[in-house]
């Protein structure tokens, strides 16, 4: 799926880090967003814990859109390209 025109692809880089058991338990016990810092207090980043889907209702797991609506939106090629949006933004 292209978000930035015909020849450009949205790329999201992610690095996997395996934690030791103690750190994993500590993070698993947190609720909500976690601010990660090194021992000196320097920010390393933020963790948004994975949601345990077993605690969610069926409608929460599925989201607000039906499969039919999602497929319709995938097929819809309307709208403006990113180049058109950026050009309009620069003119304003």
In brief:
The protein is an alpha+beta fold and 92 residues long. The protein is built from 4 helices and 2 strands; from the N terminus they run H-E-E-H-H-H. The chain has one domain (21-91).
Structure explained in plain terms:
The protein has a two-stranded antiparallel ribbon. The two termini are 29 Å apart. With 92 residues, it is α+β, with helices and mostly antiparallel strands. The mean pLDDT is 81. It is built from 4 helices and 2 strands. The protein has one domain.
How big is the Rg?
20 Å
Structural class: alpha+beta
What's the story with the biggest beta sheet? 2 strands, antiparallel
**Total number of helical segments?**
4
Helix content percent band: 25-40%
Give the count of structural domains. 1
* Anisotropy-based shape: flat
**Unreliable residue stretches:** none
| SSE succession | HEEHHH
Between the first and last Cα atoms, what is the distance in angstroms?
29 Å
Mean pLDDT: 81
- Sheet with the most strands: spatial strand order: 1-2
Count of extended strands: 2
State which percent range the strand residues make up.
5-15%
What descriptive keywords fit this protein?
92 residues; alpha+beta; two-stranded antiparallel sheet; 4 helices; 10% strand; flat
Topology:
Elements: H1 21-28, E1 34-37, E2 43-47, H2 58-62, H3 67-75, H4 82-91
Antiparallel strand pairs: 1-2
